[in-house]
Design brief:
The protein is mainly α and about 130 residues long. Helices cover about 80% and strands about 5% of the residues. It contains four helices and two strands.
Length: about 130
Amino acid sequence: MKYLSIIRYILLAVSLLVVVFYFAGIQTEVDTMMNWAYLLLGVSVALALVMPAFNFAKNPQGAARSLIGFVVVVVVLGVAYSMSDATPIVTPAATYDNEVALRLSDTGLFTTYFAFGAALLSIVILEVYNMFK
């Protein structure tokens, strides 16, 4: 598993370089950061889809839980995407009208809100459960 640690540090270093280049003025466009974020998101989604197949091959009985988790994630992403808005953002400096970027950023925000709410709800439920246990 040493290679996973190396890959993690390489991805962290590249991400740090992209941010430093932007704030140092070397790279003045936000598109580079967005493209890097899209690349990381795409790789994450691809691995999230492929890795359960390996888990299913190793442990077919435990695949039902993975499938349920996958379905929940797809439903949450679908709901978040349907709630997202692609209305252009107008600021004094510029107008942001890239529909794909606007819709994906809204989807990411709504997904984060759902995850935060689920985490908070599970903490409260577990604490109440432990009080009466």
